[in-house]
Structure formats: C-alpha cells, structure tokens
Amino acid sequence: MIILDGNKTSSEIKDEIAIDVNKMKEHGEKVPHLAAVLVGDDGASLTYVGSKVRACERVGFKSTLVQMSTTTTEDELLQKINELNENDDIDGFIVQLPLPEQIDEQKVLMAVDPSKDVDGFHPENFGKMALEMESFIPATPFGILQLLERYQVKTKGKHTVVIGRSHIVGRPMSILMSQKGNAGNSTVTLTHSYTKNLSEITKQADIIIVALGIPEFLKADMVKEGVVIIDVGISRVPDETHSRGYIIKGDVDFESVSKKASFITPVPGGVGPMTIAMLLKNTLIARQRKTS
Description:
Oligomer: single chain
Strand order of the largest sheet: 1-11-8-7-5-6
Shape: globular
Structural class: alpha/beta
C-alpha cells in the first residue's frame, strides 16, 4: 500500500512554481498576483484564506486580501468583484465560500471574469473543461489529477467510481477521469444519494473517489483488493480526549480500507494540501496566458 502524500506533492509543486516566478523576476516580468475576497468572519474561512496568503508568499506571488463585513450587501460584493475584474494588476482571484445568507452565491460566481476565475467555478470554465478546451480546472480536482499522475497510478481502461456529485469535486472528477490524458481514459460511474446497491458498484471499482462529507462512510467490505482510494472528505468529529476537542476524519475508514488498497490518500495530508497548490498553479497559468 502506497500513501498518496499531498503534503509532499504540494510542496514539490510550490517549489516548481517558485522557480518559474524567480525566472519572471530575472527577466523583469510582473509576478502573478492572486486576490482573495472574504466576506464575514467565519473561522474556517479565515484559516483557509490565511493559508493561501502564506502560500503566495512562499512562491513569490503578490497577494491581496479583501475583507468585507458580514453585513455586506450583494450589490456591494458585486461592485467589488467588478473592480477586481477591471484591475489589470490582478491575475486571478477567488471569492471564499460560504457567503452570508443575504448573498446569492451563484450570482457572485457568475460575476467573476472567467479569465481570472482561478477557482474554476464559472460555467464558462466548467463547460470548456467538459469539452477538453483550454480552461481553469477546479483546484481540488486538478490536485487529484496531479496526485494520480505524479504517483503514476494507472487509470487507462480502469473503472472509476465517484461517490458524490457536487459541482466542486464529484461532477468535474467524473468528467476529467473519462477524458483523454495521463490521469484519464477510465470508465466512470457517478454515484449519489439515490444510487441503489452502492456497495455492489464500489466492489467493482479499480479507483474510488469519495467526496461526501460523511465521516468513515466507505468501509473495507465495500472495496476490492488493490483498489485506489482518493478521499476528499474532511469532517470535524467531536473527541474530548483531544486537546482541540475534535479530530479530523475523512469519508473513508482509513484503518480498515488501507489494508486492501494499493494507493490511498490520508486525511489530513492528502487531497487538502493539493487544493491550495493548484490554486497557485492556476494563478500562474492566468499570468502566463496574459503574456503569451
């Protein structure tokens, strides 16, 4: 069994990006500039945005954090997005989710200029991705592809089962795994809450990608020997014996499933670190497209 180490792989990708940025500096070129919009004071969002800012510093990017109050109106946020769209100094930006209830998330994501949509959430980018055209791949699916590719996990002709159909992970992964390419060319089954006899389907899978948000949902009796497991889930499970009062669990019962797996991502330290690395990669790509 081989651990698909997201911490190690994301660090390697950041080092590669830093080399590219240094070359830009040597040639007197503008370095990539990533902005993040944070509405409100959600603790998890603050932590996540903070880690993105630190990652920018590590690779030599310029970064801007736009903080707005919880009472920000939808119009005020849309105006700020328009300013970022028109700011030539900004190469890419993200709007941190979730947003306060007075704001329509879909309307906000639609307002982002697709050429600066480094999260890859805009319908234009999603559509181009599905058609195998030049686009921004959502950061988490992009990270999963990189893990599979860099660990040389064979996907060609394999049966991939995706559990969960979110627009952020499940649905894009179901498209990407079937496309032509190094981490693709597999036959994909997309499953969800209405799928009958799920365990019968997962037992046939060569690769399982789980993105449900249900701690330890996938058990050992649901998989076959030699399966490749990609666990996207991350949940805080109360645990009074831990100093923080909780522990982090994935969607996979790691203890039992890892004994049957050929490759598996841990939680934490698997898919999670890859997401930020690929957000940086998308920002670098956005900068490069401007100069090409």
